[in-house]
Every structure is written in C-alpha cells, then in structure tokens.
Design brief:
Length: 241
Amino acid sequence: MILVCNACNARYLVPATVFSNGPKHVRCARCSNTWLARLPPDPPAVSAPVVAPAAPVKPLPPVVETPVSVAPIPKGSGLPTLWKEPVWHRRIQIATIAFGLVLTVALLWLLLDRNNIAKHVPSMERVYYAIGLPIPHPGDGLVLKNVHSERKFEDGHMQLVVVGEIYNESSSSRIVPELLAVAIGPDGSEIQRWQIKVPADKLTQSASAPFRSAIMSPSGLVVEVKLTFIETEDKKDVDGQ
C-alpha cells in the first residue's frame, strides 16, 4: 500500500501487513511529521448489472506470465518508521506524578500539624497568620484580673500566696487551662515555678472564676510572680481551636 504524508505529500510504499493488527503511528522521513496510518477501507460491494446472455465467445489462448525479479529496497531509502514513545518521556511522567504526591502530602502535614510545627519553629506562626490560619494559644479569650501575691504565715508555716480571677472576655465558652506561676527575685532571676489548677474547667461568656495558690515560702526575696496559661493534654478549646 502507498502512504502519503499529510504535511509534505511525500509518498511511501509500505507492506499492508504492517497494519494487519490495527492502526500505527508513523513518521515522515522528509519532514518528520507523525500521523496515525491504517489500512484503507474496503471498497463498497457493487451488485453486478443484469445483462442479457451474450453469444458464446471463442476462448483466448492462455497467457504465459514471465517471472520478473524485483530488487530489494535499499537501506536508507526514506521509508516511514513506526513511532515509539521515548523512554525519557515516560520517566518524566512518572517523576511528575511522584512530585505531585509528595507536594500534596507535605501541604497536608503543614496544615493539619500546624500547632506542633509553630511550637518547634516559632517563625512559622507569622506565616500561618498571613494565610488566615492563626495558631491558637492556651487561654485565648481569657484574661487575668485582680492578681496579687503576698507572704503569709498560715498553718504554722510562712507561705507565698497568689490569688486572682480568670475572666472570659470572648463571645463564646472557653476551656480554662492551668496556670504557670514563676517567682522572680530582685535581680530578675527565676526563684521557683509551679502550676496552679483553677477550680472551674469551663467559663461561659463574661463569666469569671477565682483561683488561689499557696506554696512554702521560697528561699530568697520574691518581688514578682508571673502567671501564664499553659496547655494541658486533657483539655481542648470548646470552639475546636
């Protein structure tokens, strides 16, 4: 059969058996154009016309065919070659899919584990805040009021007493975390630290809860007691933050 390039009209003689199993991609040796070649469709069946019987014709003498030798097509004659997908093309596809999967897993990890990431890499907190995913902190929406500390002689011992209250200034209920108290000396150094558990586990909007803590008076002069909310594993924010 004869193939004709649909780009430069170059003609090629190709055995029909090449396409016996279906269409194949071929490439023009002249212009490198690639197209899908297939066997030509079978010609439509034509019914023979009805003719009147003719008079008998004298048979012709038999034709003797003389064998003709056909020279093989020389190598490099410009026949089209079958198109085959390059190996590097397939490798690029696999690498692209693998990179997409790794990137997806990394993004999910950055979003779902952002609290732990920001805890170990504080600079990431600004990144999350910039994209609208602020990192929640223990005690968000809660404030400390009327806090003061003093040394008192109670139960036969000199003790350091810390009292105050926690107020919910947010518009929803909040879980109340524990407090970390740090006693500071005159030179700004830390003398002692301890945890304070607030009696109330949850505060509704505009509600407050008092707290009181007393420890044996630490050695050294205490000029300040700093209080901060701390995260505990058995407590989570009511709003899911």
